[in-house]
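Title: Request for sanity check on UDP-2,3-diacylglucosamine hydrolase prediction

Description:
We are preparing a figure and want to confirm that the structure record we downloaded matches what your pipeline produces today. Could someone re-run it with the sequence below and paste the raw structure tokens into this thread? We only need the token string, no images.
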Amino acid sequence: MILLISDLHLEEERPDITRAFLDFLAGRARSAQALYILGDFFEVWIGDDAMTPFQRSICTALRALSDSGTRIFLMHGNRDFLLGKAFCKAAGATLLKDPSVVQMNGEPVLLMHGDSLCTRDEAYMRLRRYLRNPISLFILRHLPLRTRHKLARKLRSESRAQTRMKANDIVDVTPQEVAQVMQQQGVQTLIHGHTHRPAIHKLQLGAQAAKRIVLGDWDRQGWALQVDEQGFQLAAFDFTPPPAPSPH
């Protein structure tokens, strides 16, 4: 059994999501052969050298899962593209390129974060090309911490403001781009996150039936895709309520 999740946007301000994720790691993920986290795992990541105690606690929990025998794969999202080798090594995780083709249930499956499929959002695509350029990445990683914090806050607030103003179809994937990428990679199944619109879409690629599976974001509930001999099963689950305070 393989599990895939994305878009947890982990941050200290959302202890409910953190608690749900730690429960997920200690429970369901323990029986998985592999766990794939397809980007935007953290709400913000300004560099492995800037890990907070909160982020270290997540790293420790991932390491415990890895040590228990579940393989962990991490992919960059648009929020945490500065996640690096140091974090992955400490967490016992493997950093996956976006896109990556992996074998699941005897077929090649394309894994992506999904933001590169939103080609109608031209302003975002320009910013993405700039930020992911190796020279930009090198400069970003070597900026003083204070500057990185400031830049991250600015990018987050701008991103939220612009997303609210953009039409729904602009911030969703471009169907032609999806078809083109799938045909280039020679796959009939694509799994991605980013859009926060969980669904299994049936597609036709030439003469072949295909599918695009969109993982859900963790907000009021969690989402996970389970891949096993039954096929691909996408389902939400409720967060368990916090333990009641003990009576004095």
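Thanks, this matches our download. The chain has a mean pLDDT of 90.
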